[in-house]
Structures are given as C-alpha cells and as structure tokens.
Amino acid sequence: AAWPPQLICMLPLLSLAGSGAQHVVTQPPSESGSLGQTVRLSCSISGGYSISSNGVSWFQQSPGNPPRYLLYYVSDSSTGRGSGVPDRFSGSASGSTGYLTISGLQAEDDADYYCLTWDTVAQGERFP
C-alpha cells in the first residue's frame, strides 16, 4: 500500500528520522522590519534534504488563532498560495533552504511563521 508523504518538521529545531536520514530544521529565532518594508524568513534543512525535490510550506500563527496556511513552494513553476493569502507573500528556495518573503509589511503580519517540509519517499511499517 502507498504511504502518504512523511512529515519531517513543523516547528523550528525539530528533528525526526525520515527515510534513513536525520533532518534538522533551523529557523532564526526572530526577524523584524518596519511597516511597508520587505522581510525574508528562512528555513534551513540539513541531512541532504532538497527543497526543489520535496518542497516547503509556510504557515502563519497570530496570538490566539490557529495556524493559517500561507503557501507551498517547490520551484518557480510549482508554487501556490492558500485561499485569501495576498500575493505580497511569496516563496523561494536555494538548495536546502526555503524562504518566505513578505513585502509591504502590515501590522497584521506580526505573527509566528512555521515551515513544513516532507519526504516524497516515505518508509512505513508493513502490517498484515
């Protein structure tokens, strides 16, 4: 039976074993900017993870609210935003690092941002 993609990380500095390799995800503790400016958040994955093969998704969580899906990015031709997410949120990547760029910063952008990555080839236990 086919297994769904294997979750590697959803929070900064979370490490799980996946497909025989250990992936460690690192996000800077904080970024800051002024209203109207552009900021770029990063999500670096060690252990040979390739964003161009597997992709990265981004979520936003404001205090007191559930996480909001922003976008996924695999390549410039394979990307998409969640419903109602403005185009000032965009994704990009270089090697094993994914980026979320927020242009024209607004007050409501003050939030926590999380990256989500996954393996397209997952291994699972076989059940009878």
From TrEMBL:
Membrane-crossing segments per the record: none
Stretch forming the signal peptide: 1-21
Pfam families per record: V-set (PF07686)
Keywords from the UniProt entry: Signal
InterPro entries assigned to the protein according to its UniProt record, in alphabetical order: Ig-like_dom, Ig-like_dom_sf, Ig-like_fold, Ig_sub, Ig_V-set, IgV_Light_Chain
Protein species of origin: Pelusios castaneus
Name of the protein this chain belongs to: Ig-like domain-containing protein
Classification via PANTHER family: IMMUNOGLOBULIN LIGHT CHAIN (PTHR23267)
Domain Ig-like span(s) in chain numbering: 12-115
Transmembrane listed as a keyword: no
